[in-house]
Each structure stands twice: as C-alpha cells, then as structure tokens.
Design brief:
The chain is α+β, with helices and mostly antiparallel strands and 400 residues long. The protein contains 16 helices and twelve strands. It starts with a helix and ends with a strand.
C-alpha cells in the first residue's frame, strides 16, 4: 500500500473507533486530502463531493458484491436479497413494485397521524422536567409510523427491536462483538416472523402497504422477495429517521438561534431538515463495488474492488459547500447525500422528511427552555448509522 493509502487506512480505522463517534468530521477532512484512497484489502475510500456524486450515478458500480474480490469481507446477506443489495435488472423490478405502493398519496395520508403521535409523545412529558429524546421521542415516533404504514402490530416492537439493532450494527465494516453468526440468527428470526406476518396479510389483507404488496394486481413479488422487502422497509423505515431526529435536536440545541427561528417559524422546517441531512447525515458512508476498472481523480479503482462512498465527508467538502462546517439552514443549492443518490436513492425519503420536519418543529415549539444535560451525549456504536444512543434534555415545561 502507498503512503497515502496507508494514511487513509489509518484514518478510516479511527472513524470506526467508537472513541471518535462524537465528532468524526476532522477525520473526514483528512480523508478528503486524498479524494480516492486505497484502504487495503481491495477497498477504496472516496471522500470528495464530485467523485461521490459521479460514482453514485456510474453504472460501472453496483451494490451486489458477489463476484468481487472483497466478497469474503462483506457480511453475508443470505438469499434472497432485498433490492437494496441488488443491481439491475433485479433491483429495478423489485424497487418498481415498492415504489408503486409507496406513493405520495400514501405518505400524505400519514401526515395527520404523525402530528397526533408527535403531540402524544410530548404530552406524556407534561409532568417532567427532562426526558431522553431518543428513547421517549425519536425512536417511538418513526417505529409507530412505519408499523402502522406497513401493517406490523405495534405490540411486536420489542421483538423486532432486538433483531434490528443487531442487523444495523452488522452494517459496519468491523462490527466487533456483533458477529456474523449473531446477525445471521437475528436475520433468520426476523425472516420467520415476517413470513408469518405476510401469510396473514395474503389471506386477511387490510389497508396497509404490506397487504398491497402481497395482494396487488399485475406483476407481484414471490414470497421470499416479499419477506426480505418487508424486513428492509421495517428496519430502514425507522433506523435512519431515529438518527435524523436525534441528530437534529442535538444540532438545534447547540445552535439556539436556529432553534428559536424554527420555533417562531415552523415553515423553516424543510430547509432545516435539508441542512441537517448535509451537516449530520444519519448514514455516514455506504458500500459500492466496481464492476469494471474505473479511472477517477487520478486513481484507478480496479474491477472487483470494494468502494466506501464517504457521504459525510462529501457533505462537508469545501470545494462544493461554502463554510461546510457551519450549520446554515439558509444554505442555497444544498446538494447533500443525506438520502444517497442514483438508482438507490432512498425510497422512504419523502416519509423521513415529513417525520423530521414535524418532529423538530414540535420540539422547538412545545419545549420551554430546552437544554442539553449531557454534552457530548453517548453515541450508538455504529459508525455507518451514526447518532446519539441517548439524548438527555432538560426543560421548564411543555407548551400546549
């Protein structure tokens, strides 16, 4: 490995180190010094905005590691696979069936329900002077929403919460104590649960997304694809939104002027969320695999190599964003990577935006004099899905 590659590998190892989870951005800045850098083991890190944008849309890259030189270094996903880990044409066929049901109208139909859930969670804090934003708000909101939208019984949350935690942790390049075996067991238990649920939805359909997928007319998924798609929507439908809300509230508390602006003008919500997706993205980096030799930024990524697209680094690239380390909801032309990009752009982005906007506006409006009780807060162990594990916030009351 070259000197630059060796240095990048050392920086990447520090990014994975939980000791740096509270502020990895100086490390991302160091990675950007070499836009495309070898990490060893046939992996490359890509950390600058134009290069990430190019590769997100490059058909020579894909999500399926089978046949690559790094397949053995990637956690086994089993068969069948969700469309998130497939390439065209299989990806396109399965994603099309999901998009057909995950419509703007279905998302819009949840707006009032999201408002009710948000208010109920805050009403529960009337007789308290502090709460954990993660456990008491940022987690239960998207879990309740996605369960209702999919048709998953909310009372089963305790069961799939454990499975989801293990599978989410296993997304990291070095999952540590969350071994492949543990993840495989969690995946199997979740698949069994979901298969039973889909059987019920086929025979007793209701007005939910999983019933629509299971009983829709025309082209349909077979049972194995239905199960993995349901798992993907269930986990992806809440894990990243928890981080969006928790990271968002933490950022606003660190920028009280912006919190006050949002309190006075909730219509700022969309711009606040867009800037949060750039400034503190819920997903810090994602994998791709080179299906051909790719010449980029003076480096050749060889066919079969693994690629780490460092989204959080690209989001703060000073060549693309003015004052990139400044939280500025007024920022124009905010081409962030908060939802990825290309053919794998997040299917649930419209729902996540709405949840984030409504949740943060309500927190800003209803909490009286909110303030951090722990700074920095403890973080989840995940490097990929980065967010506070707990966010203890004090307040003087909850407004109506």
């Amino acid at each position: 490995m070259t000197g630059a590659g060796s240095a990048a590998a050392e920086v990447f190892a520090q990014i994975l180190d939980p000791a740096n989870r509270h502020d990895p951005y100086p490390l991302y800045a160091r990675l950007r010094e070499t836009p495309v850098a070898a990490l060893g083991g046939d992996f490359h890190a890509v950390s600058t905005h134009p290069e990430i944008a190019a590769l997100l849309h490059d058909p020579r890259t894909g999500k399926d590691e089978r046949g690559s030189s790094v397949a053995d270094a990637v956690p086994r996903r089993g068969e069948p696979r969700s469309f998130l880990s497939l390439d065209p044409p299989d990806h396109d066929r399965l994603r099309r069936l999901v998009v057909r049901q995950f419509t703007p109208a279905r998302v819009a139909s949840m707006h009032q329900r999201i408002s009710v859930i948000v208010d109920a969670l805050l009403d529960a804090q009337h007789h308290h002077d502090h709460f954990d934003v993660v456990d008491d708000f940022a987690y239960p909101l998207p879990v309740t929403v996605i369960c209702e939208m999919l048709g998953v019984p909310r009372e089963d949350e305790e069961r799939f919460h454990v499975w989801a935690d293990v599978l989410a942790h296993n997304l990291d390049p070095d999952p540590g104590d969350k071994t492949t075996t543990e993840a495989a067991n969690a995946a199997q238990e979740l698949a069994t649960y979901t298969a039973q649920l889909m059987t019920v939805r086929r025979t007793q359909p209701t007005d939910d997304l999983l019933s629509a997928l299971a009983t829709g007319t025309g082209e349909r998924m077979d049972d194995p694809d239905l199960v993995v798609t349901a798992i993907l929507l269930l986990i992806a439908g809440h894990e990243t939104t928890v981080n969006l809300i928790a990271n968002g509230m933490l950022t606003l508390l660190r920028h009280p002027d912006e919190l006050e602006r949002l309190r006075r003008d909730p219509e700022r919500g969309p711009r606040v969320v867009a800037e949060l997706l750039r400034y503190e993205p819920p997903v810090q980096f994602i994998p791709r695999f080179a299906h051909a030799d790719i010449d980029i930024a003076g480096t050749t990524i060889p066919r079969g190599a693994g690629i780490r697209l460092m989204l959080a680094a690209g989001n703060r690239d000073p060549q693309r964003f003015r004052d990139p380390d400044l939280f500025a909801p007024c920022r124009a032309d905010n081409e962030h990577f908060g939802f990825g990009g290309g053919i794998h752009f997040c299917v649930g982005a419209p729902l996540a935006r709405v949840e984030g906007e409504m949740a943060l506006a309500a927190l800003a409006r209803r909490l009286v004099n909110p303030h951090l009780l722990t700074e920095p807060p403890p973080y989840r162990p995940n490097a990929v899905l980065r967010g506070p594990q707990h966010l203890e916030v004090g307040f003087d009351g909850v407004a109506e």
